[in-house]
Design a protein that fits this description.
Shape of chain B: elongated
Distance between the termini of chain B: 83 Å
Structural class of chain B: alpha+beta
Oligomer: heterodimer
Number of strands of chain B: 6
Strand content of chain A: 35-45%
Order of helices and strands of chain B: HHHEHEEHHHHEEHE
Shape of chain A: globular
Radius of gyration of chain B: 29 Å
Largest sheet of chain B: 3 strands, antiparallel
Number of helices of chain A: 4
Distance between the termini of chain A: 90 Å
Largest sheet of chain A: 6 strands, mixed
Helix content of chain B: 40-55%
Strand content of chain B: 5-15%
Structural class of chain A: mainly beta
Radius of gyration of chain A: 29 Å
Strand order of the largest sheet of chain B: 5-4-6
């Protein structure tokens, strides 16, 4: 009897413990994120907050520049803002004057507004970024500048948008240097990363080749035949001064600045015309020989740590990409696909090398991990694609292509998507070099 | 000796020596009946919460004690926060962005090399230059117009107790799908469909660009939401925030965009459903 009583109590106790317990157990729903979604962002036409009527053009242009920047980045889906605010004056630019519902309807998660006023030649731009779902302000800046700096201010705010959302700066304020041919000569030019503000920076009246940015973005090294021999020069962009830094017999070509900016790796042919890679100390002009092989070695590129270079060598028969560890002088072959691989550029993150490889009758851009794995083709026979170079954040690649009929400068994302011609105007353009982040 | 005693202690025997035991038995019987009565009467409201529904093919119900180890792997992680009684504070304001212009930038470009020699100066806007959209607008807006964000505050304490209890209650083994009074397979299926609908609506609202997923530490976010009968989200709070502001914001934005969710199934007897949603960012292969 006692036992059965105990069982009764035990049963009751179990009932008491388990039932409320199970009633409290919570259900969890797992949701895996969708892949590669782009943030829907609206950039409606900026408002003219001043009295000068022609400001509308500037305001429209600035909004367009920001839209193009965001679209090009590959992370945003720029919404058609015209569908909502046919009358930009009706929706405000500030947190409490924006007509939020119209942005919610088109699915905007972020909203950029701007108020522009021009007074004489002075331009004041108030630009803001909002979280359009939570209806909160993310960042707001007031810029003062000249009317002709409208594009620049727009790029600056594009950078601000990306910094606020992704926590890092993007390429919107960077520039690209390249060779531009005109009337029998080739000079070095630079333009904004989106192709605007192109200008020629050398006046050598000869063939100028292979521009290379110094890590601080203040100088460009290049090769010029102005004295008959392919010598190495450095152009100081602030002062405009050009200085010859290497004038060895034979070639002085394919410069690449070391990450600390103190040395330039270049190709010289000091002995019997055999080209080797050297490191030139920019201050002292001392030379250190880096490669030593009877085959030709050219086109060095530094690892971001500065402890290795990749270069092109024909030591295995055909031109291939090799890597040299500077401490141990150990050389390793990187590319095995294809019979002609050239123009390597080491990624800023250090794990990849982009290069141009001959394929069939043409050249295409390829990317390979520095350990030789994950070989990837980025261009697919749309013309002849050459001279690839990384953007400073490693997210984009610039290259030259003749797919439009003549050589122009293109940019694309590092996975090969979003290929876009950015240069225009007369003359063939080659050998683009992406600037570091410019301050 | 014992057998006769038991016999005599029978209530029908009416013999005197058994009286104390009889009293005891009556008391015991009373207690058991009371307990049983209490359990039966006390349960109806919570019995519906006792029903567990098996997951559909594309919905993972992590909290379900399905046969094996209940919530084993992830329970460690979540109850890590709940056992310590520390449900992470929800971020009502996701952005620390200002309502007003926060800084001014002077942009001046040189003629020949515009970008290269900008003496770009940034300075904080002086406080005496108030912007039209300063504080009041924001305070009013965030409380009334953001049910998801604002509601987070309300439910946070409840979520906290819930998770704590869950932590001590432990995985409740044996409570299989379709518990007592669950209405069986049909209800089960209806609820599976409901979870499926929830999944689809929230998944479709979730925007997560690669610049968020490629960041270190973007592992998962758990949000507890309370769904009203008509599907409206009454409140959402972080049970586990990722610490990555963009990821946390993307999740809250997804919920806000998905609001209202599909109405609760008719046979669900509660006034609202509380459910945990685990958002798991997937990284693009490098």
């Amino acid at each position: 009897m006692k036992r059965s009583a105990l069982i009764c109590i035990l049963f009751a106790a179990i009932m008491l413990i388990t039932l409320p317990g199970s009633a409290l157990a919570k259900v969890y729903l797992d949701i895996l994120s969708p892949f590669a979604t782009r943030l829907p962002i609206a950039v409606p036409a900026f408002k003219n907050t001043g009295s000068q009527p022609d400001t509308e053009n500037i305001a429209a242009k600035m909004a367009t520049v920001i839209r193009q920047d965001l679209d090009l980045s590959g992370f945003f889906r720029v919404l058609d803002a015209s569908a909502v605010s046919s009358d930009p004056a009706s929706s405000g630019t500030t947190l409490d004057t924006i007509k939020w519902d119209s942005w919610t309807i088109i699915g905007a998660e972020a909203l950029v507004t701007g108020g522009i006023s021009v007074n004489g030649s002075e331009l004041v731009a108030e630009l803001r970024l909002f979280d359009a779902v939570q209806r909160q302000s993310i960042v707001g800046k007031r810029y003062f500048g000249r009317a002709e700096d409208a594009r620049l201010i727009a790029h600056k705010f594009s950078n601000e948008i990306f910094k606020s959302l992704a926590g890092e700066q993007s390429v919107f304020e960077t520039r690209i240097a390249f060779e531009k041919r005109s009337q029998g000569t080739k000079e070095i030019s630079i333009m904004d990363f989106d192709g605007a503000h192109a200008e020629t920076i050398t006046e050598m009246n000869s063939i100028c080749l292979s521009p290379a940015w110094s890590p601080d973005g203040k100088k460009i090294a290049f090769t010029s035949y102005t004295d008959g021999n392919p010598d190495l020069y450095i152009k100081d962009l602030a002062s405009g001064k050009t200085e010859r830094v290497s004038h060895k017999k034979g070639i002085n070509i394919t410069p690449a600045w070391s990450p600390d900016g103190r040395r330039i790796a270049l190709t010289l042919s000091l002995k019997n015309g055999n080209s080797e890679i050297y490191a030139l100390d920019v201050a002292t002009r001392d030379l250190e020989r880096l490669t030593d092989d009877p085959a030709n070695d050219v086109s060095p590129t530094w690892s971001p740590a500065g402890d290795a270079i990749a270069f092109v060598s024909s030591r295995s028969g055909s031109p291939q990409i090799f890597m040299l560890e500077l401490a141990g002088k150990k050389v390793r072959r990187i590319t095995f696909e294809g019979s002609y691989n050239t123009s390597p550029d080491w990624s800023p993150k250090g794990n990849k090398i982009v290069y141009a490889g001959q394929q069939g009758g043409t050249f295409n851009i390829f990317v390979i991990n520095t350990d030789g794995t994950l070989f990837q083709q980025l261009t697919h026979n749309q013309g002849r694609n050459e001279d690839p170079a990384w953007s400073p954040d490693g997210r984009y690649i610039t290259f030259s292509s003749n797919r439009s009929g003549k050589n122009e400068i293109y940019i694309m994302r590092s996975d090969g998507t979003g290929q876009k011609k950015i240069s225009g105007g007369a003359g063939e353009k080659n050998n683009p070099a992406w600037s570091p982040f410019l301050k | 000796m014992t057998a006769p005693q038991l016999l005599t202690s029978s209530p029908f025997s009416g013999s005197h020596p058994a009286e104390p035991q009889l009293k005891w038995m009556v008391v015991l019987s009373g207690v058991v009946h009371l307990v049983a009565f209490g359990v039966i009467m006390g349960l109806p409201p919570s019995s519906s919460r006792n029903i567990f529904y098996s997951p559909t093919y594309s919905v993972d119900l992590v909290g379900l004690p399905s046969g094996g180890a209940p919530f084993a792997g992830s329970a460690g992680k979540t109850s890590g926060t709940s056992a310590a009684g520390e449900v992470k504070k929800q971020h009502v304001k996701l952005w620390k962005g200002p309502a007003a212009i926060e800084s001014q930038v002077k942009v001046q470009a040189g003629r020949s090399h515009p970008v290269l020699d900008i003496p770009a100066k940034e300075k904080k806007l002086a406080p005496q230059r108030p912007e039209p959209e300063a504080a009041e607008g924001r305070a009013a807006g965030s409380a009334e117009e953001n049910p998801v964000a604002a509601g987070a505050e309300k439910t946070s304490s409840e979520a906290q107790t819930e998770t704590r209890e869950q932590g001590t209650g432990g995985g409740v083994p044996g409570a299989g799908p379709g518990g007592p009074g669950g209405g069986g397979a049909a209800a089960n299926l209806r609820f599976s469909r409901y979870y499926q609908a929830l999944y689809e609506k929230i998944y479709q609202s979730w925007i997560l660009p690669d610049y968020v997923t490629e960041k270190e530490g973007s592992r998962e976010v758990i949000v507890v939401i309370k769904i009203q009968r008509d599907g409206k989200i009454l409140g959402a709070s972080f049970e586990k925030a990722s610490g990555n502001r963009q990821l946390d914001a993307s999740v809250m934005n997804a919920l806000k965009k998905a609001d209202p969710l599909p109405p609760l199934p008719d046979d669900f007897r509660e006034n609202y459903l509380e459910i945990g949603i685990r958002f798991i960012p997937q990284q693009k292969a490098q």
